[in-house]
Amino acid sequence: MPAVIVLLVVLAIYALGYRYYSSYLARRVYALDPAYVTPAHRYSDGVDFVPTNKHIVFAHHFISIAGAAPIVGPAIAVFWGWLPALLWVVLGTVFAAGAHDFGALVVSLRHKARSIGTVARDVISTRARTLFLLIIYFLVTMVNAVFAVVIATLLVNNPEAVLPVLLTIPLAIGVGQYVYRKRTAALLPSLLALVIVYSAIWLGQHVPITVDPIANAVGLQPMTVWILLIFAYTFFASRLPVWVLLQPRDYINQQQMVLALLVIMLGVLIGWNTIAAPAVHDVPEGSPPWFPLLFITIACGAVSGFHSLVSSGTTAKQLNKESDARYVGYLGSLGEGTLALCSILAATAGVVALSATPAADWQARYADWETASDGALGTFTEGVAGFANNLGVPVAIGTVFAAVVVISFAATSLDTAVRLQRYIVQEIAEMVGLRAVARNLTLATAVALSLPIILALLPGDFAFGTLWQLFGTTNQLTAGLALAVIAVWVTRRRRNPIVILIPLVFLVTMTSWALLIQLHEFATSADPLEVFLLAPLDAIIFLLAVWLIIEAAVALRRAWAARAVEADAGEESAVRSGEHDDR
Amino acid sequence: MTGEPGVPGRSRGRPGATGAVGAVGTARSVAAKLRRAWRRAEELFDAVFTARWGPSARRAARDQADTLRALVLLETLGVDNPVRYETLELIPYLVADLHEWHRRMGKEEFGDPGVCC
After folding, report:
1. B61: nearest CA in chain A?
2. What secondary structure does DSSP assign to B50-109, as a single string?
3. Element holding A135 (H helix, E strand)
4. Phi/psi of residue A551, each to 5°?
């Protein structure tokens, strides 16, 4: 099937989802009120709470949620065939992610724009806030470990990408200083920086950089050296004020993302490449089962708990009108779904665009689970290169271009996640009375990075796919907690929560099931690392999932009972006063 | 497309304008349009990419101002202050914004009627 047909059909479904399903959610489930005074107006302070045009808020929201994660997951998940991956991306985006992102934004708006963790305490219980902290701790631990592996893999496989990636750091600092000191517009310096980065992609073809000499000198694998260097960079980068490096890096990254999306879509439209992967892949015996592992492998590509953090922490403080939540929240999730769609197309059509035997080449890349998951990043970058080639860009340049985009995103995510993990470590240290860790930035950062470093450096058969799936489980659990908060809130307001409950039950069931399968695999492994490190880690995350299920069930039961009592009281009151509240 | 009123050559096809002057006028008009488009692009870029980071920068600036304010306040309360020569002359400015600061710090009233509230 031509990739362009899939692209157009899915975009049409997204459009229908926005037109009809988000409208249903806005009217019947969240009951948006354009006259409601949003926190941006009520607490306007010119710093955090600022009423902003909805198109600008959408851009801020989308930029914050878009990253490397929706790209990597689908590129691995097409191992089971393009159809199951595409179906979950489309259905998950329209029915789960849309309701989740949109709902988290509305609930936060109705709770003084507080973060979803604080709202969980208000809506569910004080324990839910602790549960939230723990889930987020494991989420950012996995993000830090997995993104370090992502970057190291790309740098080892693409030594031509090292020069442009390294150059991005001083360029970003230069742009930040220039804009800050000159108080000038950022467009021209950012564009110049982008031009220099892309010139370095061409230059990098002639000056590939590897760490092999260092690796040989110290007796380590190049991958290990890169991972250590990445964590060393992150240790220092995450301690800088955001405007020094993180912020100007973001200007350059986002331009790259817009460019990459344009390249993929134009490449698909012009090239008419055919999808070489089978609709359903007849995977070798002993491979992980697609049900339920597909749902946690795709992770952010379909629904992401991280979005609830952005919706509630930042976006809710900027919304001018409550009715803007539909445009910003729902459309943002469709944007993320579009990134996942591009990843599926790159991994199934773009990657074999220039091959004489596309089906056989694709089968070789996805021959077994280890080959598929370890090679997913290369598959994506070469897939983008295949589409870029339709626009006249040489394959070698296109591959490095895609690698630089993914590395830039992953590096920014790593920087942000380490900051977040440090805050959580400090908060937990404060709670248990470890003042030295709570007050000392260096110590807190070191503690925060210790577990991710161990996970990222695990030797042996610890495949990238396994690490990715552990990340997927924590991400889906975060989404589950946010959906539980939304469901309880909707129930209390006497509206039908069924459209929230279905994705909630589905996500939590699939995640718990996948965790049990992995737990069995780790516990019965011959590798002591899997038995003594991964199995306990998996068991802890599984216990968090069970805790979430109990917490959500109790809160929903309580909300339902309170609703019935209120309904009875309302009827009595209506009989007495002759009025009826039909909210 | 109209140029500036009364300026020959600013309007295309105006009777009496020579070809060369008309071409210069067109070029100027195009240049002005490009400048306006560039300014709009700069504004849009700043609104989308730069403004997103505004709160962190403003919060950092406010935190620094709070530290300075606390130093000046300590000076007024007689606490030994290592930078007293620098902060002494800032005391009048302190009184001006003390009210907003103590409310932000969670105290509705400052507590010393002679200074604030």
Report:
1. A47
2. IGGGHHHHHHHHHHHHHHHHHHHHHHHTT---TTHHHHGGGHHHHHHHHHHHHHHTT-SS
3. helix A126-157
4. -60, -45
CB contact under 8 A, B50 and A242: no
Per domain, the residue ranges of chain B are: 17-104
Q: What is the pLDDT of residues A409-425, one digit of tens each?
A: 888 888 888 888 888 88
Do B36 and A176 form a contact (C-beta atoms < 8 A)? no
Distance to chain B for A339, nearest Cα, Å? 19
Query: pTM for this structure?
Result: 0.84
Q: Do B49 and A254 touch (CB under 8 A)?
A: yes
Distances (CA, A) of A66 to A7, A304, A307, A487, B18: 19, 11, 9, 25, 55
Does residue A81 come out as left (phi exceeding 0), alpha (psi in the -120 to 50 range) or beta?
left
Q: Which of B35, B45, B64, B66 has the highest number of chain A CBs within 10 A, making it the mutation to test binding with A? A: B45
- Measure CA A209 to chain center: 30
Whole-complex ipTM: 0.70
Residues of chain A with Cβ-Cβ distance to B50 below 8 Å are 179, 186, 251
Rounded to 10 deg, the angle between the A441-456 and A395-432 helix axes is 130
H, E, C per residue of A222-255: HHHHHHHHHHHHHHHHCCCCCCCCHHHHHHHHHH
Q: Which two tokens stand for residue A331?
A: 């459309």
Model confidence pLDDT, tens digit, residues A65-86: 887 889 989 999 999 999 999 9
Radius of gyration over alpha carbons of chain B, in Å?
28
- Which residues contact residue A366 at a Cβ distance below 8 angstroms, ignoring those fewer than 6 apart? A78, A79, A277, A281, A372
Mean pLDDT of A124-151: 89
Burial (0-12, 13-18, 19+ Cβ within 10 Å), A267: buried
Q: Which residues neighbour A9 within 8 Å (Cβ) at sequence distance 6 or greater?
A: none
